[in-house]
Amino acid sequence: MSDYEVVIGLEVHAELSTKTKIFCSCPTSFGSEPNTQVCPVCMGMPGTLPVLNEKVVEYAVKAGLATNCGISKDSKNDRKNYFYPDTPRAYQITQDDKPLCENGYIEIDTNEGKKKVRILRIHIEDDAGKLNHDELRGGSLVDLNRAGVPLIEIVSEPDLRSAKEVEEYLRKLKSILEYIEVSDCKMEEGSLRADVNVSVRKIGTKEFGTRTEMKNMNSFRSIVRAIEYESNRQIEVLENGGKIYQETLRWDEVSGKTFSMRNKEDAQDYRYFPEPDLVAIKLSDEYIENIKNNLPELPESRKQRYLEECKLSEKDANIISSSKYLADLFEQASKICNNYKAVNNWIISDISRILNEKEMEPKDIPFTSKELANLVILIDKGTISSSIGKKVLDELFENPRNPEEIIKEKGWIQISDEKAIKEIVLNILEANPQSIADFKAGKDRALGFLVGQAMKQTKGKANPKMLNEMFLEELKNR
Ligand code: ADP
Ligand code: ZN
Ligand code: MG
């Protein structure tokens, strides 16, 4: 098995976050009642005329520049003809031989170091509607809200060699698209989905093997599983003297297997021709230059800054820079509280953990960078302990407001009054004579136990540093 190499190329579709559709002024928002965001143009009525949304071109050019593509000053739209019930026009308006962006690359981290994954092209096109199966009456219902939502399709060269590399590539691409704010990249809503092309070949072979394609995959987990399953299936077929046929497969999440859907139509079947209802897209140097100059700082550059200026670890810098929302939170909060180490720790540990538990994306974080900064300040000033800080963070996720307000309301202000601390210490000592004896006998752990008891009794409100000192002093005198 191991003398085979897996070859993967991706066609990634990203829905653009323009306010309106690509050829009409219907809104693009997700989740509305079926067929409430439609008009004669996006319903494909005969005689209607599309008008290209300029923002779509701008967003696609942005994506091209951010992925090191060349931008074509001379581009056009084409019709790709096929019948499908969710595409009433019976053609898609896409780009065939003159895409907006070509020949770029994205750099990913692999075990063997950095690797450039080449991007063949990025083009613009319209999304199709959706078929909803009617469980009650049987049959399918057509919802055209999504018809005409603008897409960019990002086609990679077959440069990827493992499921791991594919995951890295997709994460990087997603993070770049989020940074430049051209797509919300919500995979669970289908805003980012990938057609995954897989083939295998004997190591050392020059020619690629025949590929199969799994369409519209929208979770990292299924993509990784599907590639692993499909490449092993292909190897097994070849090892048994069989042949791989170029076809479209369906990945079934439940059985963890791929199934044949249809044989691959030849590209010519689509009968591409230039879209006669739209003019060619001509871009000036100034137009492209202007978009280039206004690109925000990209993840790789931020990561470098975090490594060099903040001395974050490689792992922390990777996590924080991978999401624009985390990176902004990190930078803004650090600036306010002047303690980037603490902010880094909150983001990497507790905030990441809570996001995981709640299955939330960084951009769904409900509190502001100022609120996080104030939490750090309260701990730094000794107003609250860091264990109370964790409770404040939980509150910030539940019902975000100023941390000062939270601790006042909840009575969480740290006990730092010397008299009060002394009283607590004496109480705990009285109740734990064995610990005193242990300490005297040289068991240092007894101190930690006593501090722990005091924290427990005060529900984490006592100042731990003062407790420590006071216990030591009292123990010395006994
Ligand atoms: P389409 O699927 O629309 O016919 P292409 O022929 O341009 O489009 O190929 C689509 C994708 O398939 C590209 O991302 C490319 O990298 C990938 N690909 C092409 N050949 C192979 C192969 N032998 N193995 C794996 N991926 C491949
Ligand atoms: Zn419309
Ligand atoms: Mg394809």
Provide an overview of this structure.
The relative contact order is 0.10. The N and C termini lie far apart (about 70 Å). It is elongated and about 95 Å long. The mean pLDDT is about 95. Helix 6 crosses helix 7 (about 325-335). Strands 2-6-7-10-1-11-12-13-14 form a nine-stranded mixed β-sheet. Strands 5-4-15 form a three-stranded antiparallel β-sheet, with no helix packed on it. The chain has helices at about 55-65, 165-180, 220-240, 285-295, 300-310, 315-320, 325-335, 340-355, 370-380, 385-400, 405-410, 420-430, 435-440, 445-455, 465-475, and strands spanning about 5-15, 70, 75, 80, 90-95, 100-110, 115-125, 130-135, 140-145, 150-155, 190-200, 210-215, 245-250, 255-265, 275, 280. With about 475 residues, it is an alpha+beta fold. The protein has 15 helices and 16 strands. The structure holds adenosine-5'-diphosphate, zinc ion and magnesium ion. Zinc ion binds near residues 21, 24, 26, 42 and 148.
